[in-house]
């Protein structure tokens, strides 16, 4: 059976610089893969390339296939039908996903109405269930609130609910806990793992902390300067890294006391 997501020889150029330089990996349905690296390593640009959200000036080459369909070069109209429906994302800053001028319920409902053809009433009812699923307290009241009325952790839960709303097959989580306090980080990671398992979602988790990745992903790749320098089982990368850069990441984490980012 072919992989749900297959990336081959992917290159992303911003000007003369290759921010992603010939990488490849595959992710099967229902599985989880981590991409680890420091800021500027190319991991987030990889996620944006998969989602078709790179800067308009970026030049992409290679192949990104999702469910057997090539995404590079696909018309924006066709990408829009896939993105948000079969392919969803949670970003570091929930402000990137939430419209400050719309109530939470409206934002959770509109994707369902567009992609799934649900009525407004049905979409709002599902929005309530989604907020319950991601453990947003007092979900009925939250539907009528605006993002600025919620805490950062609660906004990130709403962003996760929005990503799940159209029943996607793949969730891309790009540094989803970085902007949160330590306690909220742990709860958010548990929630992402729980929802992916319950819904049978594939997960592409991006982080600069190999320890975070090892909690949710059986396998991981390590990126540096746009290239993959090591790949393998997450536990092995954490306990016995082979590449000096991976070893440096592990050592940096140890010196910080193993704290999440």
UniProtKB/TrEMBL annotation:
SUPFAM superfamilies: P-loop containing nucleoside triphosphate hydrolases. GO terms for molecular function: ATP binding; ATP hydrolysis activity. GO terms for cellular component: plasma membrane. Its main location: membrane. Keywords: ATP-binding, Cell membrane, Membrane, Nucleotide-binding, Transport. It is a peripheral membrane protein. SMART domains: AAA. It is found in: Cell inner membrane. Signal peptide: none annotated. InterPro entries: AAA+_ATPase, ABC_Ni/Peptide_Import, ABC_transporter-like_ATP-bd, ABC_transporter-like_CS, P-loop_NTPase. It holds the Pfam family ABC_tran. Residues 5-250 form the ABC transporter domain. PANTHER family: D,D-DIPEPTIDE TRANSPORT ATP-BINDING PROTEIN DDPD-RELATED (PTHR43297:SF7), OLIGOPEPTIDE TRANSPORT ATP-BINDING PROTEIN APPD (PTHR43297). Belongs to the ABC transporter superfamily. This is Peptide/nickel transport system ATP-binding protein/oligopeptide transport system ATP-binding protein. It comes from Sinimarinibacterium flocculans.
